[in-house]
Amino acid sequence: MVKLKGLRQINPYVAGQQPNEPDMIKLNTNENAYGPSPKVAEALQNFDAQELRKYSSLDQAELCQALAANLGVSPDQLIIGNGSDDILSMAFLAFFNSGESVLFPDLTYGFYKVWADLYHVPFREIPLTADFEVHPSDYFGDNGGIILANPNAPTGIYLSLNQLEEILASNQDVVVAVDEAYIHFGGQSALPLLDNYPNLFITRTFSKDAALAGLRVGYGIGHPDLIAVMKAVKDSINPYSVDMLAERLALAAVEDWDYYRETGRAIQETRDWFAGELAALDFQVLPSQTNFVLAQPTRICAAELFQQLEERRIYVRYFPKAERIKDFLRISIGRREEMETVLAAIKEICSS
Ligand SMILES: Cc1ncc(COP(=O)(O)O)c(C=O)c1O
Question: What is the position in ligand 1's atom list of the atom closest to the CA of 85?
Fold first, then answer.
C-alpha cells in the first residue's frame, strides 16, 4: 500500500460471486430464476436510445405513481434508488446521526455493518436467539435507531408483524428501518403499520420479486418527512442516480404485477418442497419465508458439500467466516427442474 496521508482503510462488503458459465446452476445470490415479465422485455425493445441524450428524471414521478397505487400509499411516501443497497446506504446517512448506537442483529445482511463503519455510525450487534430469531425486547433500550431485515437474511426467518410492532412502539423516538427485500415470498409486509408509526421506514427491491437484479432499482417507503430527509441526502450525493431505462423498465414490471404474483407462488412452492427434501436427508433447515434456504448438512460438512457442488457447476453460498453459520449453506431457490438436479447432486454427494 502506498504511504499517503488521508487514505481510508475499509473492510468492504463481500458480494456473492457472479460466475458466468453456460450450463451452471447459479443459486448463490438469491436471484429470481423466472426472469422479468415479458412486458419488461417489450418496454426494453420499445426504448428509443435517443432519449438517453437527456438526464434521467429527478423524482421518478411516473414510477412512484404506479408503485403508490400498487402498494396503497401516496407518492410522497416513496423514494426510488439505484437498488435497495443505495436506499439502505442513504438511510444510514439520513437517519442515524444521534451519536447513539444503531442496533441490528449479529446475523443479518452483512452490508449494515459495512455502512455503519463507512459512515462512522456507532452500532451494536444484538445476538439472535439460539433458534436464529429476533427477540423484540432486546431492542427496547436506548439506541440511535434500528435496522432489521424482515424476513432476515441469511436465515430466511420472518418476524411477525405483532413482534415488529412491539419494537416500533418502544422506539418511537428513532427510525426503525425494515428491509423487506424478500417480503414477496411469504411474509406479511409492515406497510399497514405506516399509518401509526411515522418512525417506520421500509425498503424494497426490484432485484428479487421482480427478477431485475441487474437493473438496480430499489425504493424506500415512509412518512413524507422521512422521505424528504432521504431526498435531501440523495440530492447531496447523486440526484440522477436512477437511470432512465431503469425507471422505464421498473414501471413495466409494476404494471404487470400479476405475472410476479404467479412466479412468487411458484418459488414458494418449490422452496417448501426442497426444504422438505433436505430435511429428509437429515439437514437442519431453517424455516424460510424467502427465495432461499439456510441449511446445515449433517452427513457431510458444509465446506465439502459446497466444493463438490461447485465442481458440478452448482453455485451456492457458504459463509466460512460467519461463526454461527459456518456449518450451513445458503441455497437460493431456482426453478423446480433446477432444484431437482441440485437435490439429485446432493443425494449423490452425501451417499458417496
Ligand atoms: C436483505 C437484503 N437487503 C438488500 C439487498 C440488496 O438488494 P439490491 O439488489 O436491491 O441492492 C439484498 C441483496 O441480496 C439483501 O439480501
Answer: 11
The ligand 1 atom at the shortest distance from the C-alpha of residue 84 is 10
Instruction: Name the residue among 164, 262, 150 with its Cα closest to residue 203.
Output: 150
Per-10-residue mean pLDDT of the chain, 352 residues long, equals 90 87 93 97 97 97 98 98 98 98 97 97 98 98 97 98 98 98 97 98 98 98 98 97 97 97 97 98 97 96 97 96 95 98 97 84
Contact assessment for residue 43 and residue 254, using Cβ atoms and an 8 Å cutoff: no
Q: Which three cell numbers stand for residue 99?
A: 451519536
The full DSSP string for 227-291 is: HHHHHHHHHHH-TT-S-HHHHHHHHHHHHTHHHHHHHHHHHHHHHHHHHHHHHHTT-EE---SSS
- pTM over 0.85? The answer is yes
Q: Are 180 and 203 in contact (CB under 8 A)?
A: yes
Those residues whose C-beta lies under 8 Å from the C-beta of residue 80, and which sit 6 or more positions away, are 60, 63, 64, 217, 218, 219, 242, 247, 250
Closest by alpha carbon to 80, among 242, 237, 253, 248? 242
204/206 Cα distance (integer angstroms) = 7
Beta bridge partners of 147: 177
How many angstroms is it from 37 CA to the middle of ligand 1? Answer: 20
| Ligand 1 center–CA 246 separation, angstroms | 17
Closest ligand 1 atom to residue 182 Cα is 1
- Backbone dihedral angles phi then psi of residue 133, each to the nearest 5 degrees: -105, 155
Sign for the CA dihedral angle at 277, 152, 315, 318 comes to negative
Give me the residue label for grid cell 452490508: 111
